[in-house]
Amino acid sequence: MRICVLIAAKNEAIAIGSTIDSIVSAGVDKKHLYLVSDGSSDNTALLGMGRGIQVLDVPVNGGKSLAIAKGIKHFDLASYDLLALTDADTTLEPGYFAAMARAFEKFPNALGLRYWLTAWRALQYAIGHWLIKEGQHALETINVAAGCCSVFRMSLFDQIWESRPIASSKT
Fold this sequence. Notes:
Helix content is 42%, strand content 18%. The chain has a single domain (3-168), classed as Spore Coat Polysaccharide Biosynthesis Protein SpsA, Chain A (Alpha-Beta Complex), CATH 3.90.550.10. A six-stranded mixed β-sheet has the order 3-2-1-4-6-5, sandwiched between helices. The chain has helices spanning 13-25, 44-50, 64-75, 96-106, 119-126, 130-139, 154-160, 165-168; strands spanning 3-9, 33-38, 54-58, 82-86, 112-114, 149-153.
């Protein structure tokens, strides 16, 4: 399965280099690693370019959901089988992406999977984000990926991800 990684980041210069290195060590080639610097006022975009990945430097911050939608469109990521959305301050274990690909092969009807070590974050966020999650459920959309790294089946991603702002914004 072809997998790509998209990082939406704002002012993450302090962590972005180690995150990129971690993703590569976890099994994704740099040519499949994409960064959207969402209105960063630091060197986030330059550091991404310096690490040899593709970067979209958005001058005005629009928020994580819009940055993800812009990145998918700008980099034309629809040709991938799997899309991983990773926070800019995440460290992944070697073999993470191979394990995710195996899980998607094992569960062909799965839309999205999260690494089990990030599950504790869901508990931490449960109470604080209950209202947001209920609102997303009512609207039948997801506008924020839970956890520091979530992997989605690209062919079904548009069915759950809130990307309507793309239609009304300039890219």
